[in-house]
Write a structure and sequence with these properties.
The protein is α/β, with parallel strands linked by helices. The protein is built from twelve helices and 13 strands. Helix 7 packs across helix 10 and helix 10 packs across helix 11. The longest helix is centred in the N-terminal third of the chain and has 21 residues. The protein starts with 19 loop residues before the first strand and ends with a helix. The protein binds zinc ion. The site of zinc ion has 8 residues, from loops.
Length: 312
């Protein structure tokens, strides 16, 4: 018990008889009351009621300090809320999308010994990217010439078993004016390979392109930018995010995001001729590639700042 700070502010005589009382709960709650003027408050550990705010001001906190505590509590609560909704992927509605006309799974074309020159070109392109890349995903191909699709490998976007979009990578270097990737349109917030976010895993490697994601069993943003919804999806997964930046790119928005969210960034010590995770996977194999990426992670902002200067 102590002299309550409230009474004189409430039109009562100041307390000089130790009529103030506080109780601290083990769960972070605080209860307070005054047996002189009758003021009371309860702090539930999350938000500051008016009666508690008054008490804080009467014991000497400035309105600005109280405001700061409110903001801190609020942001803590937001973090908590994100952690409590692990199923953002489930709550988002993923609409099925059809693959281009006449698309066929490449395993089927292999079984049929398809010898169409365009298909052979696409198949060789994948084989040249390494055994893991060639076999590591459910690729499709179509003879359709629209958007040069017959010269592209079709990479479906899966949510669970449902195809919710696709990208089609030109096999080799496209002629000038022809885009390397032709997209169906990416559903908002979609992360390539996002099914792995529902696995019981400790880490998730975040890359830009689909082949790099296939190489390290990570997720890809499908572009140099990452959207707020993609960030939320990653945060909500419960897996520790590790950005694996493009080794050549000048635009490194993923690193900026990692720095602002406290995510780790990995700068693996791969040989200079290794341009990206897909290359590493071809040269070193998948296990070494993933292991070296995990071993090279850091969330030290100074180290990240120094190492990012050495990219490109
Ligand atoms: Zn009082």
């Amino acid at each position: 018990m102590f002299d309550a700070p409230c009474c004189s502010h409430r039109g009562h005589r100041p307390d000089a008889r130790m009529r103030g009382n506080l109780r601290f709960g083990e769960d972070g709650t605080i209860g307070g009351n005054c047996y002189n003027c009758g003021h009371k408050f309860r702090f539930d550990g999350h938000s500051i009621s008016d009666s508690f705010a008054s008490w804080l001001s009467w014991i000497g906190l400035s309105s600005r300090e109280i405001q700061e505590i409110k903001i801190q509590l609020l942001s803590k609560q937001l973090e908590g809320d994100i952690a409590r909704t692990p199923n953002l992927l489930v709550s988002t509605k993923w609409e099925p999308v059809s693959l281009p006309l006449d698309s066929v799974h490449m395993d089927v074309l292999e079984e049929e010994n398809c010898n169409l020159p365009c298909y052979q070109q696409v198949r060789n392109y994948l084989t040249n990217r390494g055994q893991h890349m060639a076999k590591g995903y459910d690729y499709f191909w179509t003879p359709s010439t629209k958007h040069n699709l017959n010269k592209r490998v079709i990479i479906p976007f899966y949510h669970k078993e449902t195809i919710v979009g696709y990208t089609a990578r030109y096999a080799g270097s496209p002629p000038s004016g022809i885009p390397r990737y032709w997209n169906s349109g990416v559903p908002p917030g979609f992360l390539f390979n996002q099914n792995i976010l529902q696995l019981d895993r400790k880490f998730v490697l975040i890359v830009e392109g689909p082949f790099d994601a296939i190489a390290v069993q990570g997720v890809a943003t499908l572009g140099s930018k990452i959207s707020d919804l993609q960030i939320q999806t990653i945060q909500a997964s419960g897996q520790e995010p590790i950005v694996l930046p493009d080794r050549q790119a000048t635009n490194q928005q993923l690193i900026d995001v990692a720095l602002s969210f406290g995510w780790s960034v990995s700068f693996p010590d791969w040989e200079p001729h290794i341009k990206d995770a897909a290359d590493a996977c071809k040269s070193y194999g998948q296990i070494y590639t993933i292991t070296s990426a995990l071993a090279a992670k850091t969330n030290n902002s100074v180290a990240i700042g120094v190492k990012r200067q050495m990219l490109g």
